[in-house]
Write a structure and sequence with these properties.
By secondary structure, the chain is α/β, with parallel strands linked by helices. The chain has two domains: 246 residues, Type I PLP-dependent aspartate aminotransferase-like (Major domain) (Aspartate Aminotransferase, domain 2, 3-Layer(aba) Sandwich); 135 residues, Aspartate Aminotransferase, domain 1, CATH 3.90.1150.10. 40% of the residues lie in helices and 15% in strands. α3 runs parallel beside α10.
Length: 398
């Protein structure tokens, strides 16, 4: 689309998420085509040779790249403001890819302590097996980041807001530290979503998503994506994808393309409802702690205002009197469903101590304030009045 001066018009996010990256076959289909194919054919051995050597454009094998997956990658990189993107089979495949493509034996990684359990496993257990040292810090304490970096630090890694206690980390400040030692800052942006936070604009080098969450948004499939500059994606990420096989499936890419079309509408409604629920929970005597990035009483409220354009679809709160009381609350819910997923059209709740973070040691959970009473609520698309009534009646069971 062009204007009168024949310059490409700058499309707004909602429009990009409907039209960005779309390519059409000879049939001129309205919806993106699904290319469920393993490989591709060539007109001649000369053409095959040229394509394998990279002298001619085109697809070689769906483990390397695929037309439907490429459309998903093009669409989300446009939204994120990234030069390049690679789709992966899951969010954890994206995290593993981003870290593994950044380091080699003898290197060092600094990561925030407040990470999803599987992310901590990569940093604490997997990377050291391959000779990569890791140091975990309090992500909200910039001085700890500064003290932890070394001459051989090659990657810094964080989530913001964090899972499950919704801490907000100053991405721009950590990015400055990464640049001072020549390291790459990798940001898991799942809880903020690309609608509310742009880590690349804040100085991050790499952004990762579990597309399973808000991007799909309807509990249908797994997916992930790594976004960064063209050179790093081409030189480091692409060889890793080709030779280890974490590539996204074409079917999942097609589902995720459909999810991107409605992402702004869903996230806006979910965030509006989450804010109402957070305000309600803040006034309940059976709730001993309420954490929501869209409220002024959030511990990092000023940072959240600086780097996020909206609150969150997520609410964390602590039921007084611990695990037994939390379980009574969970068992009393009628509309809200118990699940470890998030970002769904359905409102979902989980008990992190016994599910998503149960593999951590008791000491590690205590350090992150993941108590037996903490619950993580992912707000969906139901009428907020129904959700508030469900929460209120469940609190009576406590």
């Amino acid at each position: 689309m062009t204007n009168d001066n024949n310059k490409k018009r700058e499309l707004r996010p909602a429009t990009q998420l409907v039209h960005g990256g779309t390519t059409r076959s000879q049939h001129g289909e309205t919806s993106e085509a699904m290319f469920l194919t393993q490989g591709f054919v060539y007109d001649s051995p000369e053409a095959a040779e040229a394509r394998f050597k990279g002298d001619e454009p085109g697809f070689v094998y769906s483990r390397y790249a695929n037309p439907t997956v490429a459309m998903f990658e093009d669409r989300i990189k446009t939204l994120e403001g990234a030069e390049a993107a690679r789709g992966t089979a899951s969010g954890m495949a994206a995290v593993n890819l981003a870290l593994m493509a950044s380091v080699k034996a003898g290197d060092h990684v600094v990561a925030a302590k407040a990470l999803f359990g599987s992310c901590r496993y990569i940093c604490e257990t997997l990377l050291p097996r391959f000779g990569v040292e890791s140091t975990l810090v309090d992500g909200t304490d910039i001085d700890q980041w500064k003290a932890a970096v070394k001459p051989n630090t090659k990657a810094l890694f964080l989530e913001s807001p964090t899972n499950p206690t919704l801490e907000v980390i100053d991405i721009a400040a950590v990015a400055e530290i990464a640049k001072s030692v020549g390291a790459r800052l990798i940001v898991d942006n799942v809880f903020a979503t690309p609608m509310f936070q742009s880590p690349l604009k804040l100085g991050a080098d790499v952004v990762v998503y579990s597309a399973t969450k808000h991007i799909d948004g309807q509990g249908r499939c797994l997916g992930g994506v790594v976004l960064s500059d063209e050179e790093w994606i081409t030189d480091e990420v692409m060889p890793f994808v080709k030779h280890t096989g974490p590539h996204m499936s074409p079917f999942n890419a097609w589902v995720l393309l459909k999810g991107l079309e409605t992402l702004p509408l869903r996230v806006a409604q979910q965030t509006s409802s989450a804010g109402k629920i957070a305000d309600f929970l803040a006034g309940q005597d059976k709730v001993s702690r309420l954490i929501y990035p869209g409220r002024d009483d959030h511990p990092q409220a000023e940072i959240a205002k600086k780097q996020m354009s909206g609150g969150s679809t997520m609410v964390a709160f602590e039921i007084a009197k611990g695990k037994d009381a939390a379980f009574r609350f969970l068992n009393a819910l009628e509309i809200i469903r118990l699940s470890n997923n998030l970002g769904d059209a359905k409102t979902l709740i989980t008990h992190p101590e016994t599910t998503t973070h149960q593999s951590m040691s008791e000491e590690a959970r205590a350090e992150l304030d993941i108590s037996g009473g903490i619950l993580r609520l992912s707000v969906g698309l139901e009428d907020p009045a129904d959700l508030l009534e469900d929460i209120e009646q469940a609190l009576h069971a406590v």
